[in-house]
Amino acid sequence: MNDQASKLRSLEKRRVHQVKVSNSVRVIAVTSGKGGVGKTNFSVNVSIALQEMGKSVLLIDADLGLANVDLLMGLNPKFNLFHVLAGQKSINDIILDGPGGIKIIPGASGLYNLANLSQTEIDGLIKAFNNIDLPLDIIVIDTGAGISKNVMSLVRASKEVVVVTTPEPTSLTDAYAVIKLVHKDVEKIHLVVNKADNFKTAEATAQRLTNASLKFLSTSINYLGFILEDKTVFRSNMEQVPFYVRFPSSLPSKCVMNIGRRLLEGELDFPVREQTVGGWIKKFLSFMRK
Ligand SMILES: Nc1ncnc2c1ncn2[C@@H]1O[C@H](COP(=O)(O)OP(=O)(O)OP(=O)(O)O)[C@@H](O)[C@H]1O
Ligand SMILES: [Mg+2]
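That is the input. Now the predicted structure with adenosine-5'-triphosphate docked in place:
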């Protein structure tokens, strides 16, 4: 019996080791059509929630225009992907420790011209991502607003995307435009309704979008839930502490916790094939060059 148990344990160890070696993860890009709908707040806080639920999470600030994940956490990064590309730092040097044990790759506002990288630089970047020396389960990518090539390539390269919308019609139309652009490349499209004033508005918003996607794009959307509009979000942003940490029993924190749970339940309900970190960046760069 004991012998069998120790065999099982060593098998399990080997399995964990294999997962680490292949660097296989869930890559989840967070996007929206319209700006200012709460992507960065969602990305930061859901990352902390997922980490609290036992996952190892890396949050990448991929807003190449106005990088600001670090601002929401009061971090002051000295180095970013720019320094990795320039060969001044290794990727492991620039990864920061964030709240709740999450890891962060800070944003690099100067990386607009990723489309123009030389082959050597591309190979360097892929190698850098393959060399991330961390046991990771989930990568959350906070993207910029809009449907620029940068943003769409980041999303298309990821197997999963969370589209964030508010109940406002303009935000909803823009969210639909994003879904229309990426639904053929992405394996699973999730939806979060942010800044909802109540459950009913959120449900109606989600229904409108899921119905339209099913009817016109034959794409089913996985509604993860909503986040209520609440002043604790503004207050925590002012204090530069994520609301999940600063106001853990606030309504937005409870909403984020539910969404985190839904994301993990999804691992059983509709398993998404994992990707390797290097494979993801390779795919992203190839979309950029198309
Ligand atoms: N649930 C919420 N309740 C109240 N205010 C919120 C909520 N979510 C976000 N906000 C506010 O909305 C504003 C935009 O939030 P955030 O920066 O997260 O959006 P974003 O989508 O990342 O913006 P951008 O498109 O510029 O990257 C902030 O002022 C934030 O405090
Ligand atoms: Mg943002």
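The CA atoms of residues 232 and 249 lie 10 Å apart.
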